Amino acid sequence: MKGKRSNPECINEPRRLAALASPLRMELIGALRTHGPASIREMAAEMDQPADGLYHHVRTLLKAGIVLERGQRKVGRRMEAVYELSAARIAGRLDPKSQQSKDAAIRAGTAAMRLAAREFKTAIETDALTLTNGLPNIRASRQKTWLTDQGLVRLHQLFGQIERLLIKENKQKRGRPHSLTLVLAPCVKRRTFQHGSP
After folding, report:
1. Which of 44, 89, 147, 174 could form a cystine bridge with 151, CB 3.0-4.6 A?
2. Residue at 151 is within a domain
3. 63-91: per-residue pLDDT in tens?
4. Is pLDDT at 6 greater than 70 in this prediction?
């Protein structure tokens, strides 16, 4: 199914959150963002995955409007479809009044963190650590801190700067692919006892 690339920079319809609830689909999105339009065969080679295992996931992303068919090209005696992202930034908007939206957001966020954990583990196990001017290319950090409304606004501005830096660097297609996963959540105390329990 051919489609037009979306004008908005960000896809954020809540229904698309469900399509993001898979580390493999997030990896597909990352491969298309990093390497540009590609066929399933090319994505499979890049991700070191069997092509047969990607068709279902590509169809899911197509139905959600996250991925579009850019065209077809001949490879040997057969034609293969070429896919691209429908927007520069793929995201999902949480509807706090919808339990379905909440469930989908939890699954999508969990998928992102599972993929990040897998990439982090693989990088360390394969000795991928390098230093540039004394700075490592592997880093994990968790901060728990008080944050004012003004601080939250500033943090979002800094997130935007980081995203713009990554987009600019990615366009150059130089160096080595990296992944960065950011998670921001207010800390909420879990109730360990039911109301009325001793």
Report:
1. 147
2. no
3. 989 999 999 998 888 899 999 999 877 87
4. no
